[in-house]
User: Fold this.
Amino acid sequence: MYTTYSTKEQEARAGASPFPTNAPPSYTDQPTAQHSLADAVGADMASLQTGDPKETISVPMVHSTETVNFRKLFSKNRKEVTHSVIVRKMPREWYLKHYAKDAEGNYIGTEKPAVDAGLVFVPSKATPQDLLEQVHKVAFGKEHYAMDFSGGLV
Assistant:
């Protein structure tokens, strides 16, 4: 026999619902794609080795400057080291020949290393977070052109 319900209250008593009673989806089962800045910079450095050999790439290099504070001449903290990131643009094939390094900082180039190959940034050897941020922003961020800073005068 077919039963008809006239009100929602009667439907609730009978246990029938016009909507499916499936549980809402769980968002905790999905793997999180949270990558640290060190992982992102490491991936960017690894990407320098793949691609068109004629393509111009930006290679991050770390320039360190040591200054002596004469006011603290007899202190152990008299030297202050500042690191800055410079970017050198070169064809990828030149990078692979004279500058390429693996994740541990070992030279893996195909020819004799360049004189300044020791300056190439190695993510595993960089501990300060601000240095990683600087490399990520300067070397792998938005490309800047001469027109961006000169106000149109070149």
User: Anything to note?
Assistant: The mean pLDDT is 73. The longest strand covers residues 56-68.
